[in-house]
Specification:
It is a single chain. With 98 residues, this protein is an alpha+beta fold. Helix content is 29%, strand content 29%. It is built from 2 helices and 5 strands; from the N terminus they run αβββββα. Helix 1 crosses helix 2. The N terminus is likely disordered.
Length: 98
């Protein structure tokens, strides 16, 4: 079960994930850093307009990585990483008119 503690991972990983979370939140996504025994520390990102559009991002080595291990972007390129994640998790259909 995820927790908000930072018992797993390093302080630098947590800090970089916090920076990425802040950038994604500013773009309208929900994001929180969590940790569990299986995955360690990760960023859970969700598109609030499309509940199924979510992803777990980790900070491994020099990169932010997708849940399957592929690099998203370098950890020192937070806006680039946020842009990539935003494109993948965006809702493709426009919201219905009210």
């Amino acid at each position: 079960m995820p927790t908000d503690g930072d018992d797993s991972g390093t302080t630098a990983e947590r800090s970089d994930l916090d920076k990425l979370a802040a950038e994604l939140i500013s773009r309208g996504f929900q994001a929180r850093v969590a940790a569990d025994l299986l995955r360690g520390t990760y960023l859970h990102v969700r598109n609030p307009r499309a509940d199924l559009m979510s992803e777990r991002i980790q900070a491994k080595g020099e990169f932010f990585t997708w849940s399957w291990g592929e690099p998203v972007a370098r950890r020192d390129q937070v806006p680039t990483a946020a842009g990539c994640i935003s494109r993948v998790l965006r809702a493709l259909c426009p919201e219905p008119a009210e």
